[in-house]
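Problem 12. The chain below contains 413 residues. Write out its predicted structure in token notation.
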Amino acid sequence: MLSNQTFRIAWRNLGRNRKRTLLALTAIAVGQFGFLATSSLMNGYGEVYLNSVTGPMVGHIQVHAPGWREDRSLDLTLENLETTLWAVREDPEVKYASPRIYAPAMIATEGEGFMGVVIGVDPIVESHPSGLLAGQDFSRQVGDHRVLVGRSFARKNSIEPGMEIAVIGQDVDGSIANDLFVVTDLISTSVDIVNSLGIVMKLEETQELFMMPEQAHEIVIHVADTDVIPSTVARLSALPALADEEVLPWREIVPELVSLIDLMTGFRFFILLIVFIAAMAGIANTMLMSTFERRHEFGMLLSLGCGPNRLSGMIAFESAVLGLLGVAVGTAFALALVILTSKSGIDYAAMGGRDASFEMAFKGIYASSRVIPRMYPSDVAFGVIAVLLTSIVSVVWPMVHIARLHPVEAMRP
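Solution.
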């Protein structure tokens, strides 16, 4: 244990060469600020990205007939849908369970035809915050031969509300499925297939059109807490109603997006490594120069009975204080940045010279040029741990030098 007197001496020594100490402290603070600022921006993007990936299109868990994800064949369906949905919704962790049908079809207006996708949904269920129709109640605008059309698809093919369209496709038996529908509204969602190709139809009407009674292609499930996804998948897979079906977590459904998220995490640790190197260089330089400058002082302390361990502890304490001060300053500036931008966010489009921010959706993934930084306690903890480890590593050489000092030789001018 170091005495209070040793602590006081170590603290006073940091002020001996204030310029060098300030330079080292600045290097550490800038590194910590850079790490926290970058991490906060990536956290902000990560939240939007993860919520988008596990949002309307993919969900947290999906249930399909085996092989449907690969073939997208119309006849690979979940049977006994009502019983299956009841069993899924009975699970205590399941918050939403949304059945869907996807069927390619020809969409025809007066004299023109276009390829589209009929998406059969329950409009009430899909109005939840992570649904295909998030925050919008279209229950009175679908059914009874009324449908919704994706806005991009409608604009491209000159479809307007009130128009009558013909939907022509193939049912599960291979026969021709066709009927007339009235477009009640145009919709924009964060799901690209709905915007660019979608004809949103009430689930029961879709089942009738394509001869799919009590059937659906998938059930998209959202849970209250993402930490329970693995255990929920295990429970659902064990249900008799899902014994022959495929129950998959989102990480297995979109592995390429998981790789991108992991890449973002790896980039954060790369930034942390840069902070580590900057801190080590600053602390090591300061401590090493301080050690050589105080060689005569150390020789006197050794001759008076102060052991090498005590001197080494003093050097270690100095480096730790220097590192923690730098971390505190860097964290304070990063926290100020997060607080100042917590409502407005940071707009990369504006920083790049554009007049307005932009938003886009692609394959169910939502992206925006504006990001709201998010700082987590774990980010600060990573910086503190990194600097403390750096402090220990960077004083090894000075400590070895002190341990080898001979009092008489050290006191020589």
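Discussion. The radius of gyration is 32 Å. Students who got a different answer should revisit the alignment rule from Section 12.3.
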